[in-house]
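Running this now, will post back.
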Amino acid sequence: RTEVMVMPKKMTIFLLFCATQCSLALAFGTPSSVVLWNSGSCPYAQRAWIALEEKKVQYAWSKVDLFDKEATPEFGAAYKTANPNPLCSSKVPVLVVRDEASVEHSFTESRVVLDAIEELFPAALGHPALLPLDVADRARARVFGEAVFDGAFGGQRSAYSIAIRKLDADEGKGSWDEEAERAKLCESLSALETSLGGGTPYLSGPFVLGDHFSMAECMTAPFAQRAGVILAHYCDIDVLELCKEKSLSRAEAWWRAVTTRESVVKTGVPPEDVIKGSDRLIQMMRSRK
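Update: finished.
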């Protein structure tokens, strides 16, 4: 009598997932070289840089001065390969991957680059996964990265907007109600707390997916890192202290874990350079008001 062993559903899905990842990677071939074009200060490019670090990819880092792009024509060529629209101005990140046949492939737009990194260097081939197997968790990571964080800290709630209101008030061009500004920032941090599952006991770690540093953190870490520096410098507001004051333990744990993560620190911009770049950006933003 022949006995048939029935494989558990989750194991079957896992094996199919691994097979699909391997097929995608093998269809492309093992990359023989990987180059990330980066300005060294762009948060969108840092997303890709963090991902390469987290996935333990061997890569080269090439810097481009976005105010003097003509000095690096190879960057412009790589961008045009990724986005041939002549009306689009070149920007970072640009990821250039050479396949086994020595054919170069270029990718741009941070979310596209993140997907390319995840697929070209899959967990099935020994690289840490940035997206989990479970479809609900994958969706949660993507929604957090694309909507949740920006919804809490974007627009008029952004660190830049808060800093501009403070600077305007200092120059007599507006009013500054510190209590109201701190209350509004607390609303943003409370929204982050809720989105992270504050009070939910099943989460075993500080990140969106517990212990798993995922695509969610790759997409949001650069902005959390800069927001903390900007708010402290221009407004004398400490995000972690505010979380502690309001007992937002999940938000505090996430913010601390993300901004101290090795890959985030390694790819981050020194605080003095964040301020230097912010001064220039804030000046541009204020001149357009």
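The CA atoms of residues 34 and 269 lie 22 Å apart. More later if anyone needs it.
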